[in-house]
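Here is the promised in-class demo. Please do not try to memorize the tokens; focus on the logic of going from shape to residues.
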């Protein structure tokens, strides 16, 4: 799986993530997100997805392209359709 190291991102970058629906744990899909200035930490960045800021953790999987994220999705979830 080819992911981006969270230490190598900066505000303005666009990334792709495998997003799990918080209301339906069995639903996941690939989404485009933007790296933005963290709203509460001027020295940090955050993931902006679905009009919400998300703290970026070291173990988050960030992908440079949609194709890379979709390949990872297939590796992780196999037969489950990409929604």
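The designed amino acids, position by position:
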């Amino acid at each position: 799986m080819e992911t981006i190291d969270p230490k190598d991102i900066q505000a303005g970058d666009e990334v792709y993530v495998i997003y799990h629906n918080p209301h339906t744990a069995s639903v996941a899909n690939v989404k485009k997100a933007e790296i933005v200035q963290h709203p509460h930490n001027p020295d940090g960045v955050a993931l902006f997805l679905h009009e919400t800021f998300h703290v970026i953790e070291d173990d988050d999987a960030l992908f440079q392209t949609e194709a890379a994220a979709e390949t990872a999705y297939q590796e992780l979830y196999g037969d489950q359709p990409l929604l």
